[in-house]
Amino acid sequence: MRSISEARWFAVTLTITTLSAITISAYIFKRKFNALKSKIHELDSSLKSSSDQCSSERRGRIKAQQLLRKELTRPKSENLNLSYYPMIPIGTIQSCFSTRNGTPRQPLLVPLARACLVFNTSRVPPASLEGLSEYSHCWIIYVFHLNTNLEKMWKHPSKSGIKAKVKVPRLNGGRVGVFGTRSPHRPCPIGLTVAKVEAVQGDMVLLSGVDLVDGTPVLDVKPYIPFCDSIQDAAVPSWLMGDNLLSVASVSFSEDFTSSLENCWITAEKNSLYASPDEFQSLVKQVLSWDIRSLSQRNRPHEAIPMKEKDQLSDDTSDVDEHQDETAIVHEREQNTLNSIEVVYHLFLEGLNIHYRISDDGNVIVEKVSTSAVYDKKTNPCNYLTWKDRMQ
Ligand SMILES: *[C@@H]1O[C@H](CO)[C@@H](O)[C@H](O)[C@H]1NC(C)=O
Ligand SMILES: CC(=O)N[C@H]1CO[C@H](CO)[C@@H](O)[C@@H]1O
């Protein structure tokens, strides 16, 4: 009996042990399974998120490609969205030429024609001028600021009345397309000239040989580089060959001239770019050795327009000079004792009013100088004393 009960007990124990083992393994298995499951879940969501990222990247890529395609197929003008380029001058010219009339038609014709280019230091730091003095000449890009249609040009470009053709003095009134000339009356009233660099000091550059009127706003200055800026066998139209058409036969001074200049010099000296009355007189001679009269003045010298009317003339005249224009007519009619009419012309240099006559055969007689209230000027930022030790 006993052995039976022992055997049963053994069997029970065995069963319990087996069950426990099963339970334990089941437990271990479940834990492993859970860990695996969470790992799978983790991998799963990581996979999902990276595939989400991929597709959003893809969407982004497609969008960018679409934008690029759109940009490339769009018309250029719309692309840039710039229909005008507002440029502010970097400086202003203080020149010996007080009015357009008398301002040479081309650069370097009047070697003594001096000007001081005063830079606007709030836009251009003086260090920008470093190196410029190592060149003998520079290009100057400027605005034809005295064109009376300027405002109209900006505000109503279609009504500004720019003419396709202009009369050129050397063709005696013949017309040439505006881009075949250097007329100031052009769709964009920008001028280009070259000048001799005499000296650079601080925010100022002393120039000579200029054909710029006092107050000219300057947009840019670039060095003149002979090996690429000078073209040996460049062609020009025949009407531009030989300048003698516009030079005069002689320039002489009356006795009154010297004494009247001495008188004026007392006040003129402090603002002058010239060392002495003699040097100023040399300037007058150089300027008047070219016929600075306008086309109609030369052709009809006796139909003089009184001086007081000059401001009423407008730029709209079609008789536009190559480099200046009819508004510059400054002369008057004088009845002399022989009862013949002679014309006295006026040239304004550094605010001084120079009276001269010109005979039919091209001899200029400079009569006198007077101060002019019209051009009585502010104090100039530079005068001869500024440059004295820099000029020989
Ligand atoms: C200098 O430039 C500033 C703008 O940068 C302008 O306000 C100022 O009027 C200019 N000065 C002269 C003398 O042109
Ligand atoms: C985005 C932008 O600069 N738009 C300008 C494009 O140019 C016109 C004038 O031509 C302006 O009015 C817009 O503001």
TrEMBL record:
<keyword id="KW-0812">Transmembrane</keyword>
<dbReference type="InterPro" id="IPR023370">
    <property type="entry name" value="TrmO-like_N"/>
</dbReference>
<dbReference type="Pfam" id="PF01980">
    <property type="entry name" value="TrmO_N"/>
</dbReference>
<keyword id="KW-0949">S-adenosyl-L-methionine</keyword>
<keyword id="KW-0472">Membrane</keyword>
<keyword id="KW-1133">Transmembrane helix</keyword>
<feature type="transmembrane region" description="Helical">
    <location>
        <begin position="7"/>
        <end position="29"/>
    </location>
</feature>
<dbReference type="InterPro" id="IPR040372">
    <property type="entry name" value="YaeB-like"/>
</dbReference>
<dbReference type="InterPro" id="IPR036413">
    <property type="entry name" value="YaeB-like_sf"/>
</dbReference>
<dbReference type="InterPro" id="IPR036414">
    <property type="entry name" value="YaeB_N_sf"/>
</dbReference>
<feature type="domain" description="TsaA-like">
    <location>
        <begin position="87"/>
        <end position="233"/>
    </location>
</feature>
<comment type="similarity">
    <text>Belongs to the tRNA methyltransferase O family.</text>
</comment>
<protein>
    <recommendedName>
        <fullName>TsaA-like domain-containing protein</fullName>
    </recommendedName>
</protein>
